[in-house]
Each structure stands twice: as C-alpha cells, then as structure tokens.
Task: inverse folding
C-alpha cells in the first residue's frame, strides 16, 4: 500500500491511546449532496462501466452521477427495494423487490425496465457471478437463494440455505459466500452446481450482515450486529480473528489496493481495518459519517466510499411484523456522502 500521511481531524475517532502512525491511511467526508425524495433506502451499487451509482429506495432505484450528485434517472415499480447487480455481458441490470418477491430486469444503457421474475419471499441482497454467468438473489424469510439467467431474466434454480441470508460475495472462481444472519455463520455455495458445499460458525459474532472479500488472500470480512467484524479464512472454512467495529453495521467493503476493510455503521461511523498480513488485522480508526449511514459502496479505482442517510425522527410504534422498527425519515433530507482518503 502506498503510505498516506494525514493529520486526523475531529471527524476521525482514534482507537487506543496516542496518535496513529504516519503510515496510517484514514478517511474523511469530502462531499455531501442533498438528493431529497421520500422513502427508505438499502444497498448502494457502483456501476464501474457506466460510472453511475445505483441506490435502492423503497419503490424505485435512484441512479446518481457519483461525481456531482446529480440524479440521472430512476427505475420505478419496486416494492421495498433492496439491492442492484450488473450483468455487463448481457447488458442487463437487476434489482430486488423484497415485499413482492420479484426481481426487476432493466437495460443497462437506457435504464428501461425489461421485465420481472419471481424470486422468493423477502429477496434482499443480489449479485452477478461472472464465473457461472448467473445472477443470485438471497432471500431472507425464504432461507434460500434464487438463481436467474442474466439474458432471459428467468429463474432457473433455487438453493436451500437452511437459514436467513444477508449479504453475499463472489470469489471469482465459481464460489459464493453468504452471511447467514439468524445462524451466525457463513455458507459457501458452488455457483455452477447451485448447492451449499459447507458452512462454518462466526461465534462470537452475532447476526452477520455486511460481507466483503479479499480475493487474493481468500479472506472474508463479516460485519456483525454485536459490534464485531468476523474475519474468516475462506480456504480453510473457519473464523480467524475478530476486531471491534461501530454499532448498526449493514455494509462492508474491501479495497485490495490499500488492503483496507470497511464497515459502515448506522451509529454514524465508518470503521477502517488494515490487513497487515493475511493473519493480522488492526483497526485504524472510526471515521465520523452521519447517523443512519449503514450501507456503502466502494470505488476501488479512486478509493472513494459512498454512503447515504437522512435526518431521522422517532421510530413508528412496533408491530408483530416489525417489533424493532427503524427511526422515521424526515422527508426531503436524503443525502449522499462521499468519503475520501
């Protein structure tokens, strides 16, 4: 990693006594853009070919220019939008719609909706695996993964996961890895065979959500709701180490050029972890973002991080379906934050 010397401002919360060494790389909020609009949000996805940022927002996907924060377009017709994936070879994008169990396929050039297919109940995270040339959704309540052909947009298979999945990553060699939130574990999937090949526990990590991968060293970074990042050896299929992170994590990323892992936390922090070696990891800092900025996208070329949030009010009353409701959103305050090293 190219060493970056930076004096930390009040926006970075140092962990431990003293100051960080001069070789430490940290981040700061460099730009903010008010996007406005109503509704909640979930995952962000960076289109590296079209240079666009896709943000899942309740009943639509908002497409933003990541340089100036300008809203370029919207993809309508979703019901509790969650995630977006890009299948560049077929020219198609895909977005999950958790409340109606559907996946929307759209044209990556025009952004026009091309069709819909049924996945399974609570389809949430989604990815495209270039090795198998398939799209995979991860369906929380259905405890499954739906497999979709990226050209036709049709569902071609279902994988029983045996527990509720959260975020997933592709290793690039035909293997997928997914956090099993209610089991506190990671599952490995053979993408071509469409089956789970093994899984391992993440204890003491509980409720893993965000997931990132260091493909060169076969390391997985699971962001867990009990303020821990669990780091696994994907080759051996076991937990290697844990480090502390902020509260309310929902997104993780890994920058191979900087050997940095990130956890975006709803408590208003971005935890930065350095991979000193494939067996040694240390927390560099918790950088202040804003409360509610729990999901993220990373540009591996510019090393910029994108996250979003809004001004939050009191949560609605709990219900049987939502016993722990999230805070209410103040209309018109939805904001994109861009962090830079």
Result:
């Amino acid at each position: 990693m190219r060493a970056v010397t930076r004096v930390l401002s009040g926006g970075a919360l140092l962990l431990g006594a003293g100051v960080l060494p001069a070789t430490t790389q940290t981040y700061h909020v460099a730009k903010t853009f008010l996007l406005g609009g109503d509704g909640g949000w979930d995952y962000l996805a960076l289109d590296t070919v079209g240079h666009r940022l896709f943000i899942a927002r309740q009943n639509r996907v908002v497409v933003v220019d990541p340089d100036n924060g300008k809203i370029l377009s919207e993809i309508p017709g979703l019901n509790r939008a969650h995630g977006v994936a890009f299948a560049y070879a077929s020219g198609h994008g895909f977005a999950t719609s958790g409340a109606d169990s559907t996946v929307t396929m759209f044209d990556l050039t025009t952004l026009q909706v091309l069709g819909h297919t049924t996945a399974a109940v609570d389809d949430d995270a989604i990815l495209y695996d270039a090795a198998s040339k398939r799209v995979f959704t991860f369906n929380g309540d259905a405890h499954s993964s739906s497999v979709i052909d990226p050209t036709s947009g049709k569902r071609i298979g279902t994988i029983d996961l045996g527990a509720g999945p959260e975020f997933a990553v592709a290793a690039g060699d035909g293997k997928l890895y997914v956090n099993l939130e209610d089991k506190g574990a990671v599952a490995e999937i053979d993408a071509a065979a469409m089956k789970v090949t093994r899984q391992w526990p993440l204890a003491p990590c509980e409720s893993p959500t965000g997931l990132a991968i260091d493909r060169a060293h076969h390391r997985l970074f699971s962001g867990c709701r009990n303020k821990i990042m669990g780091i696994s050896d994907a080759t051996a299929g076991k937990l290697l180490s844990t480090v502390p992170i902020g509260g309310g994590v929902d997104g993780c990323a890994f920058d191979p050029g900087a050997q940095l892992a990130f956890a975006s936390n709803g408590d208003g922090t971005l935890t930065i972890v350095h991979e000193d070696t494939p067996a040694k990891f240390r927390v560099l800092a918790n950088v202040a973002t804003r409360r509610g900025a729990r999901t993220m996208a990373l540009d591996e070329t510019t090393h910029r991080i994108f996250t979003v949030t809004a001004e939050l009010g009191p949560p609605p009353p709990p219900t049987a379906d939502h016993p722990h409701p999230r805070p209410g959103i103040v209309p018109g305050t939805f904001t994109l934050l861009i962090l830079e090293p």
Notes: Residues 34 and 335 are 4 Å apart (CA to CA). The first strand starts at residue 12 and ends at 14.
